[in-house]
């Protein structure tokens, strides 16, 4: 049946010059016997999945030849959306804008069919309307329940869903208003009717401790606890390695292997070793926990890991892919313990080229666990006490530094893009209250591990590609020309440009980053550039990695926390004996890997979004104590409704155009600017501004600022507060540079006074009408 599906699609894409009925299709394809009897069932399956489209005259065609596009809807809380095509055949096939009246009844992340109204040219977007909803994405929705006399409704936490869920009377009996609930959709929305649902779970009441993070977990369908049978399977795993398990493995327990991780890491899946060879080259050993030995295919552990796809690192907890007995125990490369590993030994010359390599199973014993902080203090800050304490490993650490620089220089020469965004980490107290924002900057220690893992991933990917074995690659495709045109428009404002926008090379983007390094506009251009690139994903075919300028790339180095890495290990292990696998096994892998890659990519994105949301939530909660405070910031976004400002500590908020009372401001998209009609004052990307924090909303994850120049009345209000001055506590510290920096401090004012400031800071209604795009 699979073969017939492929035959039908191939025929309709290449040979059928017009839509055909099922009978015409059978006649043109000369189907007989079993294929003819299966035809109607296969056509029904293809049509239900939108692989082919049925017209009102009962004829079938493929979407791409009917001015139709199948893709996923990314909705906005403003009522419009964009459809991201599943298949992009040319660079001009951009995302499709869907206006509010073209949304049908589709909801965020639904799989839909779109009729395209305006075709794109270079740098031009497309628009269209949704004509069919193929698959609904939001079968369960998290939101706040409100009751009335005859019915209730749930307002989704995710504002992009755009509509409340109607709850019939029977569903409201025991649920109080204001409760956070999980509702299962029983009837999908239609043009003049809301969706209906049934309450499946009451999470708690709005305002309960931890309820917002629990809501985020549920909204992204992230599992918290392991099923009993999975937990039991993990309990059956051994605590130590037996001699029988060592048989057939290379014994590397004599090597001074080390791990380098964050201080709070508990699942250590990579160890490293570097030795300078007599010929001047370096031997780099990368040793990855042999998780595939303990998690065998089709076991309950494997099925659970496959479903989860990834570990999720939220601001207050970790939701591991594997039970902790495995991830923190026998699979974790804990110092002083014998552990099974999958190893890569690579000989690397002074140009960073891998001239020789071996991939093999091993047994290792990590000699020392280092933290990033300790390695940085030894190699960068030259801490004499730490150098003396780790004297026996100092030579290896220095070799690691040299090799790291060689590998990075090689990557830069071939044109890789190197973004260096600081990571925000919110530190919580024991009650979950945010007490500090830490800005983690990549240092030499992080770079050492990053470069070593990158070269190991490339080596394994190239090895498996040459074996012609079905495999899972990590791919990053070339960017859309439309987004490159918009990026180029931004660059022109800062005296930069791309020579080509339809065939951009990663080296050209990195050249721009080098030119703007250290300038005020660096963060802005880097952010827009990153947003202009496609998302990396997993794929069962090798498509290369644009951002790394790598022909071959995979994920081999984190099987404890990423399911694709576990699959990579499993396939690699099968090739160790003969260098190949059976034809039957290849066919099975070829059939299952595309689905694994797709599911893993989806779970990775859900995890990343949940992680960002929890950090955003706690960031907003943290900033609540600084309402009324003055800050220096940089404009990192300009829209028709206002400007986004980023503070030194990485926190972002919005200055609404309605609060800019000194003039009427018009949005000029080409210049990424708001320009005053009378004063001609310009607010553009990268400009430094002074703002006052006026409002925070943890529920909406919003922070509102007002420009100092527009807010004399706020200053007067703050200046009238009782004397006593400001406490001088740190609001944020920088980690990685070695220097703490005070960015914000709490105002010593009462809750009542703060509320008074917020009340006065509410934006006044304006009649500004931004120019239409």
From TrEMBL:
Entry keywords, A to Z: Coiled coil, Cytoplasm, Exonuclease, Hydrolase, Nuclease, RNA-binding
Domain of life per record: Bacteria
Source species of the chain: Pelosinus baikalensis
Residue numbers spanned by region Disordered: 718-773
Similarity comment: Belongs to the RNR ribonuclease family. RNase R subfamily.
Cited Pfam families: CSD2 (PF17876), OB_RNB (PF08206), RNB (PF00773), S1 (PF00575)
InterPro entries: CSD (IPR011129), CSD2 (IPR040476), NA-bd_OB-fold (IPR012340), RNase_B_OB_dom (IPR013223), RNase_II/R (IPR001900), RNase_II/R_CS (IPR022966), RNase_II/RNase_R (IPR004476), RNase_R (IPR011805)
Location, primary (coarse class): cytoplasm
EC annotation from Swiss-Prot or TrEMBL: 3.1.13.1
Entry function: 3'-5' exoribonuclease that releases 5'-nucleoside monophosphates and is involved in maturation of structured RNAs.
Catalytic activity: Exonucleolytic cleavage in the 3'- to 5'-direction to yield nucleoside 5'-phosphates
Protein name according to UniProt: Ribonuclease R
């Amino acid at each position: 049946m699979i073969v017939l599906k492929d035959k039908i699609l191939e025929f309709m894409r290449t040979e059928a010059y017009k839509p055909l009925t099922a009978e015409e299709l059978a006649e043109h394809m000369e189907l007989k016997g079993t294929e003819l009897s299966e035809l109607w069932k296969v056509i029904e399956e293809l049509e239900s999945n939108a692989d082919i489209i049925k017209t009102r005259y009962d004829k079938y065609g493929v979407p791409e030849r009917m001015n139709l596009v199948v893709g996923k809807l990314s909705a906005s809380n403003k009522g419009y959306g964009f459809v991201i095509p599943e298949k992009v055949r040319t660079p001009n096939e951009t995302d499709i804008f869907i206006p509010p009246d073209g949304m049908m009844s589709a909801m965020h992340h639904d799989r839909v069919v779109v009729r395209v109204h305006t075709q794109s040219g270079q740098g031009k977007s497309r628009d269209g309307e949704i004509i069919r909803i193929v698959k609904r994405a939001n079968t369960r929705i998290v939101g706040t329940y409100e009751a009335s006399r005859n019915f209730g409704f749930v307002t989704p936490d995710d504002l992009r869903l755009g509509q409340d869920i109607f709850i019939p009377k029977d569903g409201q009996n025991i649920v109080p208003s204001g409760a956070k609930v999980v509702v299962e959709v029983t009837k999908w929305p239609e043009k003049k009717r809301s969706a209906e649902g049934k309450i499946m779970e009451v999470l708690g009441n709005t305002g309960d401790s931890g309820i917002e993070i629990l809501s985020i977990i549920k909204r992204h369908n992230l599992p918290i606890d392991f099923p009993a049978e999975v937990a039991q399977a993990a309990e059956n795993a051994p605590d130590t390695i037996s001699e029988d398990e060592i048989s057939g493995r290379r014994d590397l327990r004599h090597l001074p292997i080390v791990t380098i991780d964050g201080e709070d890491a508990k699942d250590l899946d990579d160890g490293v070793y570097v030795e300078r060879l007599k010929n001047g080259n370096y031997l780099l050993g990368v040793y990855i926990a042999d998780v595939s030995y303990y998690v065998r295919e089709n076991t309950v552990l494997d099925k659970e890991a496959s479903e989860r796809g990834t570990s999720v690192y939220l601001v207050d907890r970790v939701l591991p892919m594997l039970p902790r007995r495995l991830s923190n125990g026998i699979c974790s490369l804990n110092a002083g313990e014998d552990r099974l590993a999958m190893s890569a030994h690579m000989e690397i010359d002074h140009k960073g080229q891998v001239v020789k390599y071996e991939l093999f199973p091993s047994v290792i014993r990590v000699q020392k666990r280092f933290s990033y902080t300790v390695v940085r203090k030894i190699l960068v800050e030259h801490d004499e006490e730490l150098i003396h304490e780790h004297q026996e490993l100092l030579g290896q650490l220095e070799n690691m530094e040299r090799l790291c620089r060689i590998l990075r220089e090689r990557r830069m020469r071939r044109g890789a893009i190197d973004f260096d965004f600081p990571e925000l980490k919110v530190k919580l107290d024991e009650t979950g209250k945010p007490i500090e924002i830490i800005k983690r900057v990549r240092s030499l220690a992080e770079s050492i591990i990053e470069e070593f893992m990158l070269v190991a991933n490339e080596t394994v990917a190239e090895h498996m590609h040459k074996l012609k074995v079905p495999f899972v690659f990590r791919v990053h495709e070339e960017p859309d020309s439309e987004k490159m045109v918009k990026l180029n428009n931004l660059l022109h404002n800062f005296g930069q440009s791309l020579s080509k926008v339809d065939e951009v090379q990663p080296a050209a983007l990195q050249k721009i980053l080098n030119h703007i390094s250290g300038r005020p506009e660096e963060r802005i251009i880097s952010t827009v550039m990153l947003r202009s690139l496609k998302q990396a994903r997993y794929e069962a075919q090798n498509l290369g990695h644009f951002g790394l300028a790598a022909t071959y790339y995979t994920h081999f180095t984190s099987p404890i926390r990423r399911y694709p890495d576990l699959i990579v290990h499993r396939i690699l292990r099968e090739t160790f004996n003969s260098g190949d696998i059976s034809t039957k096994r290849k066919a099975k892998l070829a059939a299952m890997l595309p689905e694994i890659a797709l599911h893993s990519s989806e779970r990775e994105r859900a995890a990343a979004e949940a992680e960002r949301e929890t950090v955003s939530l706690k960031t907003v909660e943290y900033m609540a104590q600084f309402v009324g405070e003055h800050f220096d910031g940089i404009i990192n976004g300009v829209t028709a409704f206002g400007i986004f400002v980023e503070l030194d500590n990485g926190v972002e908020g919005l200055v609404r155009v309605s609060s800019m009372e000194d003039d009427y401001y018009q949005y000029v998209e080409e210049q990424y600017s708001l320009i005053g009609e009378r004063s001609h004052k310009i607010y553009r990307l990268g400009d430094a501004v002074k703002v006052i924090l006026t409002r925070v909303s943890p529920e909406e994850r919003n922070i509102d600022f007002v420009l100092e120049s527009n807010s004399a009345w706020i200053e007067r209000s703050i200046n009238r507060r009782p004397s006593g001055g400001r406490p001088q506590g740190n609001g944020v510290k920088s980690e990685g540079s070695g220097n703490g920096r005070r960015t914000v401090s709490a105002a010593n004012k009462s809750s009542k006074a703060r509320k008074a400031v917020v009340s006065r800071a509410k934006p006044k209604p304006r009649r500004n009408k931004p120019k239409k795009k």
